[in-house]
Amino acid sequence: MNQVRATEDYTPEDIAELRKVLSDLLSSCTALVDQYGTGGTWAPSPNGILAELDDSAALFADLSRLLSRSRKGVGRINLKVRQRCLGQPCDRASKVLSGPASVWLP
């Protein structure tokens, strides 16, 4: 899929939304660090290695969910920008699409 992207394609609202998605990700990761360890160091389980393995699986699941949610958020923002650009000519898209017809022919 071609990406129609240039700095001027992003509105201040798009940028604010992107920064919120990324800030939420970092805040959630910080909460996970506090939940599963101390100061970024894994806290061994007092219940043995099997409990520790279960905790690690839960950590990976939590991280996966966080990353997926953030990736989808960024994707939604990019999709909105792309739709806006393709719905109305933006500088970069209009330059690409206004070239000679021979560019489109094999």
Quick structural overview:
This protein is mainly alpha-helical. It contains 3 helices and 2 strands.
Structure keywords:
4% strand; two-stranded antiparallel ribbon; 67% helix; mainly alpha; 106 residues
Report on the structure:
- There is one protein chain.
- With 106 residues, the protein is mainly alpha-helical.
- The chain is built from 3 helices and 2 strands; from the N terminus they run H-E-E-H-H.
- Strands 1-2 form a two-stranded antiparallel sheet.
Topology:
Elements: H1 12-36, E1 37-38, E2 41-42, H2 49-87, H3 91-97
Antiparallel strand pairs: 1-2
Helix pairs in contact: 1-2
Task: Work out the radius of gyration.
Answer: 22 Å
What is the beta-strand fraction?
under 5%
How far is it from the N-terminal to the C-terminal residue, by CA? 19 Å
Mean pLDDT: 83
